[in-house]
Amino acid sequence: MKKIFLLIFISIFSFDFAQVGNVGINTSSPHSSSVLDVNSSSKGLLLPRLTSAAISTLSATAAEGLVVYDKDKKLFLGWDGTRWQILGNALALSTVSIGAWEVGGYTSYGNSPVAASSSNPIVTSAILERGSGLATSGTGAAATWGGTNWTQVDLPTAAAANEFALITLNFAPGNTISFTKINANNLRRTGTGPTKSQYQFSVNNGISYVNIGAAIDLSSSAPSGNNIADIDLSLYYDLQNINTTTVSNVKFRIVSYSASGSTGNWYINNITGNDLEFTGIVN
């Protein structure tokens, strides 16, 4: 008999839900714009709390609009169909320089590897270097850092051929770091140099890389170069609340391609202030 009453109750509830179209918890008049209206003046809504590893696994099957809480990074996240987006202003604290390079005094393409001109105390080393596919033949422009031998026509082949500028930021353990931006910079090329550059990052020691926005068109081959606006890194979940005990470094690279000749040059150009700088929040 109890089972019969339970089935009747479920049937009635399902019928009412289908007819009304929205449900209220702790309210008899849920708002008409909601499918579920939860009302309370003393308690909150508790979302699923997952580890970062579990969220990474969930990415393969997540539905667009799915919301979870990362209990390792202490962030609310929403899946946009492609990647996790941080919900809310998670980076309201003051930002500091993580690592910066000033190329004004460089000659002959600049040394590789070359340490940062300045870096945050939690950074044990900050290195800028040319990928193994690049060369320094001929005479490089003064007050720049770069290389030649840009031979690939697209991003995948350029990355596979190691035709990129690579930045490695190594951290002391026991800290938390969030990246906010790559400060405005300037990329310069000669007439036959690469016409596109793609910024990327890796949090697994270079095993895989994620594109930062779209590739940048280097339309000008003038010595004044191409001004690149601040690049927002706060949108990238993997770059937020990084535990430096478990993630010992973050790598960035600028992969350049679509040159019209292998003797064309590409540079990080000298500008007012630091010429390549990463900023963020350190806890």
Can you walk me through this structure?
It comes from Frigoriflavimonas asaccharolytica. This is F5/8 type C domain-containing protein. Keywords: Signal. Residues 1-18 form the signal peptide. The protein has 283 residues and is mainly beta. The chain folds into three domains: 1-45, no CATH class; 47-88, YefM-like fold; 96-282, Jelly Rolls (Sandwich). The protein is built from three helices and 23 strands. The protein has helices at residues 2-20, 52-58, 155-160, and strands at residues 23-25, 36-38, 49-50, 67-70, 75-79, 84-86, 96-101, 114-115, 118-119, 123-130, 144-147, 164-171, 176-182, 185-189, 196-202, 210-211, 216-217, 226-228, 231-232, 242-243, 249-257, 266-269, 276-282. The strands form five sheets. Strands 8, 10, 12, 15, 16, 17 and 21 form a seven-stranded antiparallel beta sheet that branches. Strands 7, 9, 13, 19, 20 and 23 form a six-stranded antiparallel beta sheet that branches. The protein starts with a helix and ends with a strand.
Approximate shape: elongated
Average pLDDT score: 89
Q: What is the highest CATH level, the class of the largest domain?
A: Mainly Beta
Class from secondary-structure proportions: mainly beta
Q: DSSP strand (E) fraction? A: 35-45%
User: What do we call the CATH topology of the largest domain?
Assistant: Jelly Rolls
Number of helices: 3
Domain module tally: 3
Count of strand segments? 23
Oligomer: single chain
Q: Tell me the helix content.
A: 10-25%
Rg computed from alpha carbons, rounded to a whole number of angstroms: 25 Å
Largest sheet: 7 strands, antiparallel
Second-tier CATH architecture of the largest domain: Sandwich
**Distance between the ends:** 61 Å
Which spans have pLDDT < 50 for at least 5 consecutive residues?
8-19
Q: Which H/E pattern describes the elements?
A: HEEEHEEEEEEEEHEEEEEEEEEEEE
